[in-house]
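User: Sequence recovery, please. Input:
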């Protein structure tokens, strides 16, 4: 079983206390209006996936292919669109509005976002170089890079050499962060630890690939829909509980 992930927005960091009174630094992630806007099937695409969108936008503010695809699917265009591959039993109907309760307190997740851009930086800040000595003949080169290549052979700087350059502004994945809890009313997910990116950055959350998971809602716990004619989504556990009440 492989469930779909969620697209969230980073709100910031705070601290929350557990039942023992211990403070935990957590990152607040907002699910917002994240919804399913499409599906990928083996017959048509060769793989199974849920297409999610977040942050509703006007058609004139998105790329034309995205606007046309949204119109064909009968949903509104979204600013951020991501595909999450999943198994057949975790396909979510188009139009389903997703909730923070998709994740359970105590489970582990992997998060992915674009890190803060630091601009052009030197080798000491970018690669944690030690720099040269402060004295003993060193003149105006305390934070310089030092030697970078060879003389006769190969007579060039090898590829991959750690040097000065652009720092940050790249895709970073942090694995095995624990979900401290969720706020279903505000649609927030609280993840222990730091998440890459500045406040307002889009963050992708998925079930941790290196951990085993139990008692997770399949395919999700959402019951509200973006499309008025779409049917509510019920998990297997909810279906069983409804059957018991009917009996």
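Assistant: Recovered sequence (247 residues):
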């Amino acid at each position: 079983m492989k469930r779909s992930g969620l697209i969230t927005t980073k709100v910031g960091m705070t601290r929350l206390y557990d039942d023992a009174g211990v403070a935990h630094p957590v990152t607040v992630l907002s699910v917002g209006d994240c919804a399913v806007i499409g599906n990928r099937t083996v017959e048509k695409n060769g793989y199974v996936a849920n297409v999610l969108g977040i942050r509703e936008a006007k058609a004139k503010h998105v790329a034309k292919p995205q606007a046309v695809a949204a119109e064909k699917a009968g949903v509104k265009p979204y600013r951020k669109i991501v595909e999450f591959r999943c198994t057949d039993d975790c396909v979510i109907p188009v139009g389903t509005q997703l909730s923070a309760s998709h994740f359970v307190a105590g489970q582990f997740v992997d998060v992915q976002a674009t890190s803060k851009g630091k601009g052009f930086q030197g080798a000491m800040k970018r690669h944690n170089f030690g720099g040269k000595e402060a004295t003993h003949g060193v003149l105006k080169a305390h934070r310089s890079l030092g030697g970078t290549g060879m003389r006769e052979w190969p007579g060039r700087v090898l590829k991959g050499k750690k040097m000065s350059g652009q720092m940050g502004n790249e895709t970073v994945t942090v694995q095995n962060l624990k979900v401290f809890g969720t706020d279903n009313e505000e649609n927030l997910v609280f993840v222990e630890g730091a998440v890459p990116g500045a406040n307002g950055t889009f963050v992708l959350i998925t079930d941790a690939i290196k951990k085993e998971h139990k008692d997770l809602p399949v395919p999700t716990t959402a019951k509200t829909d973006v499309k008025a004619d779409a049917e509510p989504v019920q998990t297997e556990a909810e279906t069983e509980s409804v059957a018991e009440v009917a009996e």
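Residues 236-246 form the longest helix (11 residues).
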